[in-house]
Amino acid sequence: MTDDSNAAPESDIETAIRENDPALITYITAGDPSLEDTKRYVEALDRGGSDLIELGLPFSEPVAEGATIQAAINRALDAGTTPEGFFELVDDLETEAPLLVMTYYNMILQYGSEPDVRPFVERAAEAGLSGIIVPDLPAEEADPLREACDDHGLDLVFIVAPTTEGERLETIMSQVSGFAYVQARLGTTGARADVSTATHESLERLSEYDVPKAVGFGVSEGDHAAEIIEAGADGVIVGSALIDIVAGSDDPAADLEAKAEELKRGAVRGAESLTVDAEDTPEPEQP
């Protein structure tokens, strides 16, 4: 029997994914169109069944984002959203779902009085965030942030692209905690009409690693969520489809809650399909 007495306890994020498998992870940009609105939208996503919620901290050069999220970031910056305003928002939030911040490395590095990642991580932990996603931070250069996150009990989530393999994949998976953010397709974020075949290939490539895998980039419908879970993911990540609601709905909070419910139902449907398939698989004949 393996002695797990010294194993690190699961984080809030990993627990949320494993206990709610399949998990729904939702994203909105903080401050779009205002921090007060963001608070209502986060609460709506929480009511709708989100198991984790990512909050985008606006940055002026969001290289991983498509046009939809870039527009949201611009609206948030135009509204005067600042890092401290963001943290005050998080201070005020009370959700069942753990919260993560998604932002860019320079924002983290420049938060304090001098370039250093620790003041940002300390403030994130103080506000009650559970993890950080940094799209432009290579795993090979992540040690200072990784150590700061470890010291303050935060997960550091990395994005795994469809082209990531070999030594680079090993480096990422040795650094990641909470979950692996599996990029469904090459390019930037944005809602799509279908699920990329790269999703299935990426999940197969990551199957040997004992960390939850959640797929994002292009997920917008319940059927997408079902297909991704059927392909072996532990969770789905949805952002641009929710930003579209924020930008275009007459009642964003109600529509965000309804969209989260739809996406969660789709994810659960995918998991149920896996269970049915497993039950229908015939037992091998005994010799």
Helix proportion range: 40-55%
Q: What is the helix/strand order? A: HEHEHHEHHEHEEHEHEHEHH
What's the N-to-C terminus distance?
30 Å
**Could you tell me the number of beta strands?**
9
Q: Count the DSSP helices.
A: 12
Q: Mind telling me the C-alpha Rg?
A: 19 Å
Mean pLDDT: 89
> What would the principal axes of the Cα set say about the shape?
globular
Structural class: alpha/beta
What report would you give on this structure?
- The relative contact order is 0.16.
- Mean pLDDT is 89; it is low at 1-6 and 187-194.
- Helix 8 links the parallel strand 6 (159-160) and strand 7.
- It is globular and about 55 Å long.
- Helix 10 (222-230) packs parallel to helix 12 (252-280).
- The protein has helices at 12-19, 35-47, 67-78, 83-92, 105-109, 118-127, 143-152, 166-175, 197-206, 222-230, 240-248, 252-280, and strands at residues 23-29, 52-56, 99-102, 131-133, 155-157, 159-160, 180-183, 213-216, 235-238.
- A 9-stranded parallel β-sheet has the order 5-4-3-2-1-9-8-7-6.
- Helix content is 47%, strand content 13%.
- The protein is α/β, with parallel strands linked by helices and 287 residues long.
- It contains 12 helices and 9 strands.
- The active site is at 54 (proton acceptor), 65 (proton acceptor).
- Its EC number is 4.2.1.20.
- This is Tryptophan synthase alpha chain.
- InterPro entries: Aldolase_TIM, RibuloseP-bd_barrel, Trp_synthase_alpha_AS, Trp_synthase_suA.
- Belongs to the TrpA family.
